Batch of 2 targets.
Target 1
Amino acid sequence: MSDRRRALSDTIAAAGRIILGKERQIRLALACLLARGHLLIEDLPGVGKTTLAHALARLLGLDFSRIQFTSDLLPADIVGVSIYDREQAAFRFLPGPVFAQVVLADEINRATPKTQSALLEAMEERQVTAEGETRRLPEPFFVIATQNPSHQVGTFALPESQLDRFLMRIALGYPDRAAERELLAGGNIRERLDALPPTLAPADLLPLQQAVAAVHVAPALVDYVQALVDGTRQDPAFVHGLSPRAALALLAAARAWAFIDGRDMVLPEDVQAVLPAVAAHRLGRAQGGGHANADDIAAIVRRTPLP
Amino acid sequence: MRQRRTPPAAEPLERGCVPWLLACALATGAPHAGHLPVWLSAGAAAALLFRAWLWRRNRPLPARWLLVLVVVVAIAGIYAQYRTLLGRDAGVALLVLFMALKPLETRGRRDAIVVVMLGFFLLLTHYFYSQSIATGLWLLAAATLQTATLLRLFGGARPLPDIARRAALLLLQATPFMLVLFLLFPRVSGPLWGLPQDAHAGRSGLPETIAPGTISDLVLDGSIAFRVSFDGALPENSALYWRGPVMDEFDGRNWRPARLGGFEPARIEAKGTAVAYEITLEPHDQRWLLALDAPLALPERAFVSARMQAVAAEPVRQRSRFAFRSALDYRLNTAESRRMLDVARRLPAAGNPRARALAAGWRTRHGQPQAIVAEALQLFRGGNFVYTLQPPLLGEHPVDEFVFDVRQGFCEHYASAFVFLMRAAGVPARVVAGYQGGEVNPVDGYLVVRQSDAHAWAEVWIEGEGWRRVDPTAASAPARIERGIASALPEADALPTMTRLDLRWLRFRWEAINNAWNQWVLGYNPDRQREFLSRLGLEGIDWRGMTALLAALCALLLAGIGLSALRRRPRREPLQRAWLALCARLARLGVRREDWEGPLDYAARVAAARPELAETVLAAAAAYAEARYGGRPGDAVDRLREARRKLPRKWSIA
């Protein structure tokens, strides 16, 4: 297992050489993958969302597909269609782009709710039902969806219930000056991506995910997670508090974070580290609309003493 | 080389706290406006308004040099006003100044705490000026506000009723301590420092000389002169002559006490049973006390003068209690000295010729003093005299004009004229000033005597009988003595509102509350304290005993509170205790753990701030994390204790 751990830190380092100055986001994305969750990146075009997804797929040796969501995209464009094969005189299923280990769903909020829900169902069930036949999706299956900030025109905002299916929501943000300078001075990103050697084999991923699920959670930490979740439920600033599913997600993400940090136990620090990514998109603000921001989450943490 | 310590980060002040601080400044400073110079009150108000405006507009606070300049100018102004910076008035002025200006430099939470603490101090200074119930209530409300402000500073934004409830609860929890301190803190006689003005600059009360108009002026004053509680039944109203100063020198217009020296105290032969009572005298800044004729037993440090006045050793400058016993039936100085009788017969050489002539006629006709007295009383009874507060002004021969022309007057006119006539007829006589009657408050049973009950009457000396009280007013207007002043005066005469009959029920209640406050809160002096403690079976306890008892009770209360708090909090396991102890030690060294901060984060922060402790603290935190969150206890408790022992013991202010 220690080899795999080392490979994990190599992965982070390698990804960090492609996406500069975003180590925290890379770690979160990796944690999301190890916790078997899906990732939502909300940010402006051009800050490196696709690059991140692509780099992760390459480094883990996984196959990668990208779906550009548009308003006329249909469910079949994602899932796949059956076409008549004259040679065999039978219908043959042509799998859609969702049949890949890493799927980048770009600008997910540009598609109609019907199309969105086709993808989201696949994410949740990890299988696709088309024309009466259920087909399992590949393993591992990791969706990175991106969405534009919802105030942009021509978007269908994801409903709360759909947002809940993403383990984490992160933002990449602009690179800092030094990172951007390095980016500008560097070569073609596409070429460098293609030249990226895998640091992990696909076969390594499953044992890693199992090891993450086995990270120790002490009763004191469960108390802390409960106190945090309770805090969101008592806070009048939010419409609803975190659901039990969200609490499970928080623990899973914290486990993955602790594992990436090289520990086999979850500390309150881990919970605090993943809390913004796990909780913010699940907490609707009571006033002014929108979701909880970083300050709201920090306030919850500061209000909740360690038990 | 030792690295320089960074000061603990000054926590910035939340914007929402500012209105609280301004309210505190206003609540504690504003009541002083009445006795501060106008420029200071106006300046303080302007400073607070300016701060409120800055807050509203979100503007930056003024520069520090500007504040320093304002402070220097204002202190110079205070010095110019009072010619000192010490003492009660100048000291309070300085405190109010600081209170008004401090909000202008509240940048951090520490400044805000200074404002609140200053407010608590300023609250106390109000007792220099007033100790009334209203002041007490105001200060209680202000103390609640201050406590609420502290809660707001430390507890963050919460709904207003929530903060108010918690503040009230905190004060309520402090009440047992307050009661213990109030009841047991050893009292000293008299104040430790400057007295409130209303505690001794009382009403002057009875005048030192009597001229026409002096008592009728006093009658318009509804304030209370003294209160009496009788041990037994209340004597009849017509027996309630409260004797004040005795006037035996007349200059043609004014009566005043003659200067006498070397006289023995009055000799009183009591007849019948005596009444015992306690008088709570409002301060009048005079030495005379008021007692029923004739006082037999007097309080300590008081004596009976030659004229049977009860006199205290010191002027009465505080509300004080005096216990008396008086015989209502008595004989006074049947063997009076020649000198005293000479004084009581003396008249000015000239003036009031008609009265002199009338008296000379009585003297030749009767010879016996009793008959002369009866003749004079008959004159007042039958001569169509009118008892009024607003008599016409009298001229050069006041007695003549009163007796023969205007025939309208108040008690001092009657007493003065009567004594003049007696002296002119050769009977020794003198004017006695005091109070007559009083009114029972049905709420608490005290007899209340007001300035408006002021009265003047006469005493004549008759061979074999001694001094006998004669009240010429009673002859002319018997209702005054039997039923009180309100029923004796004509309707048109304006009396103080508080004496009017229709507002009585309200007044009775208010005065009973006030009296209870005076008797039990303000009047809780060494005597009351001794009395109270002896009722608890602690007779003869001295200040050492009281202090010990005080400390013991407070310790008991604290222990009770501590125990109940401990019971509410589950006992921590040794690991957690050891960790918290280590954190507490580190906090004293300048790096405090936030209560939400995880062990490794905290250790990293300590390591950054105090690199020399890094190794110890990082290892200890890792061991703690393993034990608490990794399920591998190991020897973490010992390692934490060991780490704590290794830390330096230095104390720091942070």
Target 2
Amino acid sequence: MAKKNITNGNKQASDRLKKIAEFVYEQMKDGEIPHLEVSSRTKNNIVLSEDHKVWKYGTDVVRRSAKDLGGATNILRSLYTVDFIDEMINSGKSSTLRGMYYISEGWNKAKFPTQDESNRLAEDLEIITKCMREDFKLRPEEDGARVIGDVTLTEVNRKGDVKKINCKDDVGDSGYGIPYNVEEEKVKFKKVNAKFIIAIETGGMFDRLAENGFDESHKAVLVHLKGQPARSTRRFIKRMHKFSKLPVVLFTDGDPWSYRIFASVAYGAIKTAHISEYLATPQAQYLGITPSDIVNYELPNDALTDNDINALKSELTDPRFNSSKWKQEIKLQLKLKKKSEQQALAKYGLDFVTDTYLPEKLAEMNII
Amino acid sequence: MAVPYAQKMAESQKEISISDFFAKNRQILGFDNPSKAMLVSVKEAVDNSLDACEEAGLLPKIFVKILRTGNKDRFILTVRDNGPGIVKKQIPNVFGRLLYGSRFHAIRQSRGQQGIGISSVVLYSQLTTGKTTTVISKIGEDYPCHKMEILINTKLNRPQIVSSEVVLWEPAHGTEFQCEIVGRYQKNKKQSVLEYLRSTAIVNPHVEIIFEDPDEEVFRFQRVVDKLPEHAKESKPHPHGIELGVLKNMLHYTEARKLTSFLTNEFTRISPRGARGLLDKADIPDKLNPKRLSLDKIQGLYEGMQNMKFMSPPTDCLSPIGDRLIRKGLRKEIDSKFAYTVTRDAKVFRGTPFQIEAGIVYGGELSAGEQVQILRFANRVPLQYQQGGCAMTHAIERINWRPYGLEQRGGKGIPVGPAVILIHIASTNVPFTSESKEAVADVDEIIDEAVRALMDCGRRIKSHINKKKKLKKVSEKYTLIKEILPEIARKSSEIVKKPQLALDEVITKIMNVHVIDTGIHYREVGEGENKQQHTEVTIKVQNYTQKERIFKLLVKVPDTLIQGIYPESYKMKGEVIEWDVGPVSPARSVHLGFTLLGLDKDEYEEVDVFYSKLPGEVIGADPA
């Protein structure tokens, strides 16, 4: 039996969600067509927040009005979701996003046609209430990624016991698995004995660094991003950085999609800009692979596809890449019409990345 | 002295019989290849039967059968009709002599213009299989039925009777034609026997056709009208519509003794004054005997006829199908949601009267992603070949269909969409591009008329599509106010734990529209002699706005008896019923209606409602 613990975050979420229902009810009581307003989640509506140095939603809002069938259905779904979350909070249960999608089968007209719709609605509610999905007791399917390094932390396990874990000595080859909830009440950092944190895009490269003992030889904390990183991974990096004050670097493939991974870790993702201050680590720096690396290290490469080119062009107008360094690199890549993967470094042998490439780049960045 | 070469040549120069000529030039008759030969054979036989039935005032019932033989390239074709039959003496002439018939010199709209005739099939059969053609014919209940086997003597263009006997035959009258031909039977193709018969059934709704294909599958094309088309009258030629050679022949064979009477009696639209003027110009004495005109003078007379102005020829010699009947035919053979047809007034090109009819069917089972199907007809006969070279296709291609709701690349060419377009030209002399008579020539007047008819159809399609779109919007709003909004109210009151709300005001605000719903219900009242066809039309106007409304409503009605118009405060203005409606309060509705008498089921398909003085959005009607 799960322990019933209602946190302050849960209570606040419950109150704010009820306000949504009240807002709808009062509008109808006044004879008005009910509507809800949500920040518009597009590239054009993210602005740099001075307080947090991260990208947040601007003032554009999308109005969901019951004037048309789509808007009305959206409002009805919001009400059902509010009710569902409130019930979970009161009974101390949680659900995955996919679980909610299936539960909506019983909501008649408010049923979600796809899981994307239910995911988006959960984000809407986060934006309206300024609470986090975790406060709603909703969690994603995918768990967070892995960590290897001399980090000591405590985690409250599912039995409610506090477990102390060292991410170098107490774990197997796959490292420490980041849970979906990494908030203070669940995970506490005790000690981080390292010089920097390195977040790695692909599992292959993460394993290479682990196998080559890069964490010990260069006193690094290795974090596997698993592609586009889950919220909990980004939150974990953010909290670890805040606790340790260590520099954070990102090591990814050299293509536009990887630059987006960096942007979401450093500045926040467009879809989750409402919680950027919780998730983003503005101090994070991009290590590589850069387009210049492709030239300097003469890396094996592939031609850019049309999709790649469009993505690069779109990044040129993305406020998150609005720095002279990024613009220069993106323009260079458009000129080269080439991209390279992390693994391309293997051209010079399996140890090249740990013996030469990373030390050179880290030195360039004044980290070692 | 040597024999002059020309004399030697003269020995080998002899008259080539017409049959011989066609024997060597099969493609002129349309027998280019086995599958086309099959189609043309059926077509000639069926056209022949239809013309015979109609001329005798009989509703045609035609049976067509194609039977496989032991040889895979050979088929036995049988066509049987319930026509007037043919007297014994004429049977060999009709079937065994090319270019034999009464139609060649008449200026009249007829199917027979289309081919050389049934005898060409006999000839084709004979040339490809060597077999005789069998004809069975009976002219009435009390008359003997004759069965003949015939061949054509191709040298002499004369029939050769192989056998002749009297047989027992059950039908009261009619003709059966049977021959063996080399051909190919194609299934599921645009240019197939089945498609030809289906198309024929569309433009001849008074015809019943039963077809048994080589796989013994039977197709029935039902008769939907029990009335024969009006008999096309014969008419005299118009001076603008004649060729020099024909004029020469007419002058030679006329019984008139004076040129003035020749011109006024044998042409239409030449008055005595016009005749004198013509002769004056050509410098020919009035009283001259027509037979004694020199070639020079004939040329002068001909040119004068072309240059002088005459009244347009009368158009009552045309027999259009009629928009109502085309719609019936289309509805019967094509499963669709919407059909509109139009019959234009008769027009004239180069002294020849013609009339264009067009129709379009839309939606239903028709495929949306393909080019629209085009059905072309000339004097009720389907044209199945050379679509790209036909004036009727060119008219379709000339129109920008996109504003009318069909897709079209670059606003040109054959449109794409769930539609079938039909065009029919009726004329005393359809101008074909070639002797095979498969495509209509690009005559400006014809293309212009076809474009006008098609654009009319296009506008109707557009308004139909718009109406459908708007109705979808309304049905969405109904779902909204009837299902979603009450749920929002229930769920929100449940969460905030407050009493349920009344929603009237919110509903009117959400709708903010006037909805006009129409209904058409067909029923038959009484029995037998007293049976009446009632088409009841209902109109409901709902005011989903926040203001009281007073407005005018107009409904266009067809030309038929109307009764029971309600409310009674209406005015009849020509073909339009006009009501002053209101005041109608917010969230209230009014009902109007009437009954149309004497229309068949599905004949009245869409209620055309117009309004005036109704501000804001109106769904289901157009502004007057």
